[in-house]
Amino acid sequence: MFPIEYDAASRTWLLSTPGTGYAMRLGDDGTLRHLYWGAPLTLEQAAAVPAPRPVTMTQFEGREYDIEELPVEGGARFGAVALRVRFADGTRGLELAYADHATDGGTLRIRFVDRHYPVEVGLHYRVRPDSDVIERWTSVANTGGEPVEVLRADSAVWPIPGRPGYALRHVTGHWGGETQLERAGLARGETVLTSRRGTTGHHANPWLTIDAADAGEEHGEVFSTALAWSGTWRLTVTRTATDVVSVSAGAGHEGVGWRLRPGQRRDTPVSAGLRSTGGYGGASDAWHRYVRTHVLPHPDELRPVTYNSWEATGFTVDEAGQRLLARQAAALGVQLFVMDDGWFGARVSDHAGLGDWTVNPDRFPNGLAPLVDEVHQLGMKFGIWVEPEMVNPDSDLYRAHPDWVLHFPNRRRTELRQQLVLNFARPDVAEWAHGWLDELVGKNGIDFLKWDMNRPFTEAGWPDGSEDADRLWMSYVDNLYRVIDRLRADHPGLRIQSCCGGGGRVDLGILRRTDEVWTSDNTDAYDRLAIQHGYGQLYPAATMCAWVTDVPNFLTGRTVPLRFRFHVAMAGVLAIGGNLPEWTESELAEAGPLVAQYKRIAPVVQRGRLHRLLPPVGDGLSAVQYVAPDGRESAVFCWLPAPHFGHTVPALRLRGLDPAGRYRDEETGEVHHGAVLLGHGLRPSLPAGDYASALVHLVRVD
């Protein structure tokens, strides 16, 4: 079986992955129409799939047929349009004709040209031999002498095969409450998920799944798609009155276009699609393997145990205090020490200094070198907080360059968190950002950047950006990517965390150039159960940074035992953010072994398969299990926020183990038969009281 095959007689293309076949056919009218997405087929079988019903034209419904691979504006199309342009003479719409196609290994490009105007459109597909994820994107090229206005350019339209019912699953939320999982029946009409904020967004994330309303965690056919883009975006799910369902995915939001100048071509971001027959858990596992293997820049690395100073010090940062925190963090076994906000300029609060990226001489009289050197001598790597895309109006940078921020003439400049957004679409702003970041990292031997962004776009204007100022919505992200890519090329050992007030910029685009994300500013362990549950639907634990912080929690006021806080954070990339000098001896004594235990299970958590045994619902028991790639180790986490009288803790039926194997509990030494763990279950030993938790590390002994 070849990854991409073409049958000239029927003009059928077949894309093949280990578990999926995806086929499309060029109709007699030159339209590329979707044919099949399901279990693997041979090319002969794909060519025998009945053609979509012939195009019919009705008085009010227009063109009626199965889904096009990329529906364009033009003719009697009244549904969601994936590609919409306007030419210099005011003509809108496209009439595309097939030109040619080409394959290169696992990549297919099908090229179309407009029948009159000098525009070329390419539909691109990529498959890999080790993944069922299919990547798609669209290219638009202006081959003429006048600009073409692009009003909408989606990456792909994903057809969902006909089923008796449909359910839509996605995440929603807000700052401090990201990735809340929702599932509901799919309404007829158009359901739009979007971000208009300049970033991926806290309130939504550019992925979704659709099933036949019959899928569960371990069973059922699930179709899903995710967009690799870190700016504004839109997913439009269409269910017609006759139950034809599709998902159109692309960058940008409504009302914003950009010009394609003569000779220019733009490729849209990748939209990735997946069909899984293993339910939501099977889909998550496929996405996790895809992200670890084909998205992350260093997929084989284990993320280190981190300490971050923010919740300990706030803006009260100085060399002596950071040295003390570093020594205590090292004593706990921390591997990466990160100094957060407050080390630069006049940054004694969030009111001033942002944008002035020079070391504060009062707080660090000898620069950063003494602190960095001590952190390295303690056996840890050194990281630092930066927010390159923002500026306080009360800063030397803003006073020198007030034109560098997003703004419109004759309009107020809205401040959020006392800051404005620098226009990264401007080449001079992007060059400035790379310059000081390059110097900061290179001069000080910095190993890690916590790259933050603490507000969305407002007044997204560019007065000197010519008549095409709206292109900033795209160019901003393009330049953001270029700065990060260039910085990493300059400093191959540098690792980066994506932070946007927590989880406001989490997507496959930013993960291609960063190593982890700050999941949420909400570090309350109870709230984190739901946040992490939603996050893990698409993104793997190796990217999910989670902190153990002090109580009462600064957002919720909730007090949770240290053990519970650790066990929640250990289900991702463990980090500590508490004020260590104020921890009691008993807390420090409890934390050290937990850090050591996490280091032992980190390969299982960060590289293993996730099994969601019980979802977090109310105050009941929830549990997840990670199984190492070779199946010889497993880590089981259990959390019980509130026990109820008369309700015993149930045995957890584990997954992913060998029924013929025997597994030793590394804490108790007890040996369990795999068949018993799978068929009967494991009853966790939980302490009495609220917020009880347990971690069971199982290792195969035969």
From TrEMBL:
GO molecular-function terms, A-Z: alpha-galactosidase activity
Record-annotated Glycosyl hydrolase family 36 N-terminal domain positions: 30-260
Keyword Cytoplasm on entry: no
PROSITE patterns (alphabetical): ALPHA_GALACTOSIDASE
Glycosyl hydrolase family 36 C-terminal domain boundaries: 622-698
Keywords: Glycosidase, Hydrolase
Pfam families, sorted: Glyco_hydro_36C, Glyco_hydro_36N, Melibiase
A GO BP entry: carbohydrate catabolic process
Catalytic site: 452 (nucleophile), 521 (proton donor)
Keyword Ribosomal protein in annotation: no
Domain of life: Bacteria
Chain positions covered by the region annotation Disordered: 256-277
Catalysis performed (reactions): Hydrolysis of terminal, non-reducing alpha-D-galactose residues in alpha-D-galactosides, including galactose oligosaccharides, galactomannans and galactolipids
EC number in record: 3.2.1.22
List of residues binding substrate: 175, 340-341, 417, 450-454, 499, 521
Family (UniProt): Belongs to the glycosyl hydrolase.
Name of the protein: Alpha-galactosidase
